[in-house]
Amino acid sequence: MSRFLRSTSARLSLRFALLYAIITALVLGLSYHYADREISDWVSDQLAEDAAGFASLYESEGLDAVRAKLSGFAGFNFEDYRVYLLQDPEGKVLAGNVDAIDWQGSGSYVPVNAIHAEKPRYEDVTGYLLHSVQLGPNRLTLGTSTYFLEELREVLGRGFVAGFILLLLAGLLAGIIVGRRTERRLTQISATLKSVALGQLDRRIPATGSDGDDLARMADEINRTIAQLQNMVESQKQISADIAHDLRTPMQRMRQRLDVLLNAHDLTPEIRTDAEQAVEIADDLIETFHALLRIAQIEAGQQSARFAATSLAPILTRIEDAYSPVAEENGQTLVFDIEDQDATVQGDQQLLTQMVANLVENALRHSPSGTRIEVALTRADGSVLLEVSDNGPGIPAEERDKVFRRFYRLEKSRTTPGNGLGLSMVRAIADLHGAAITLKDNSTGLRVLVRFPAGSTSVIFRAPAQAGMSDSVR
C-alpha cells in the first residue's frame, strides 16, 4: 500500500479526489444556501397570505369576525409556533396571544425577548418572523417562530454534511480503485518490458478488453513492437542456423579431403604441416557450426519434451571426473562440494550437463594457474542451489550483459581458444528451462549461482558472474 501511495497513479487519484471534494462542497454549500432562502421565503409568503386573508375578512365581515378568528387560534398554537396581536390606533390590545411586540416595522425578524406575554415562551424558540397589515385604523401583526425553520436548517445541514462525507469517501474510494487498477496495468507493462530486456521476447502485456483505454492502446503498440522485434531476432537466428547448416556439409567434405591428403606418402614435411593446421582450422569451424545448430535447436524448444526428474549430484560427479585432470594439468584447483546428494530438478539431463560443463570449462580456460574453482550443491530456503565460483580475473561489470551474445568475447580473451558460443549455449539451455542468469562479483573473481525452486517443474537458474566461465567470455 505504501508503494502505491508513492506512485504517480496514487498522487493523481488523490488530486482528483481533492478536486472532487472541493466541487462537491461548493455544490452542496450553494444547494444549502438556496434551500434555506427558499424555505425562509416560503414562510414569509405564508405570513403575507394569512395577513391578506385577515384583511379580506375585515373588509367583508368586520372587526368582530377578525377578533373571533384570532381567538380560535389559541387552541392550535403548538410550542408557541404562531403569535398574533391586533391593536387599535392607540396601541390597545383588541385580540392576540401576546401583550406587546417591540418592533418598529423594519425587517421581518425579531428575537424572542421582543415578544412580551404573561406565559413564558417555549425554551427552544429564539425568534420570530413578523408581518403586519392595516385593518382600517387598527393594526394586525402576525408572527411565525423560527424554531421549526432552524430545526429544518439543522436537518438540511446534517444531511448535506453527511452527503458530502459519503460523496467524498465514494470519490476517494473510486480514485483509489482506478489508481490501483492503473498501477497494476503499469506494473504489468513494466514487468513485461523488463522481461523483454532480459531476452524473453515471447512475453506480452496481458489484454484487458477495453480498447478505448489509453493504457490498452499503449499496451497493444508495445506488444506489436515486441512481436516485430521477436520476428527480427528469430530471423537472425534462423539465418545463422541456415548458414551453419548449409556450410557444415562442405566443411565436413573438405575435412575428409584433408584426411585423404594427410594419408598420402609423398607429402613434404612443409605440406604435411600446412595440412595438419588446415585440419585443425576445419575442426574448429565444424565445431562452431555444430554449436550454432545446437543453440538453434535448444532455442526452438525441441528438447523440452525430454524433461524428467534429474538428479544433479551424478552430473557434478561426472564433470568432476572429467575436468579434475585438466585443472591439475593447468596448475589449478577444482573443488566439488556436493552437500545435497538428493537434489533433483525437472529438466533434460544432457542439457544440464552441457550447461554446467560449459561454465566449469570456461572458468578453467580463462583463469590463470593457481586459480581455485569451487562447485557447490546445497539447499537453502527450500531451493536447490548450484554454485560455481572462482578467484580468477573476473568479468567487468559493463561487459556482463554482453557475454551471452553469440561470438562475443572480451578483448583479453581473443588470443585464447574458443568460438564465443559457450555462454550463448548456457543462456539458451537456461531459457529452455525457464532460467534467469546473472553475473556478480566474487570478491576476487566471479561467482555463479544456479537456483532451482522447490516444487517447481522448471529450472530457475541464476548465474552470478564467473571469472571466466565459458569460451564465449574470456
TrEMBL record:
Main location: membrane
GO molecular function: phosphorelay sensor kinase activity
Superkingdom as given in the UniProt entry: Bacteria
Gene3D superfamilies xrefs: 1.10.287.130, 6.10.340.10, Histidine kinase-like ATPase, C-terminal domain
Keywords recorded for this protein, A-Z: Kinase, Membrane, Phosphoprotein, Transferase, Transmembrane, Transmembrane helix, Two-component regulatory system
A GO CC term assigned to this protein in UniProt: plasma membrane
Reactions the enzyme catalyzes: ATP + protein L-histidine = ADP + protein N-phospho-L-histidine
InterPro entries, per the entry: HAMP_dom, HATPase_C_sf, HATPase_dom, His_kinase_dom, HisK_dim/P_dom, HisK_dim/P_sf, Sig_transdc_His_kin-like_C, TCS_sensor_his_kinase
Occurrences of domain Histidine kinase (ranges): 242-456
Domain HAMP: 180-234
Membrane spanning stretches: 12-35, 155-178
Keyword Transmembrane helix (UniProt): yes
Location(s) in or outside the cell: Membrane
EC number of the protein: 2.7.13.3
Protein's recorded name: histidine kinase
Lineage: Bacteria, Pseudomonadati, Pseudomonadota, Alphaproteobacteria, Rhodobacterales
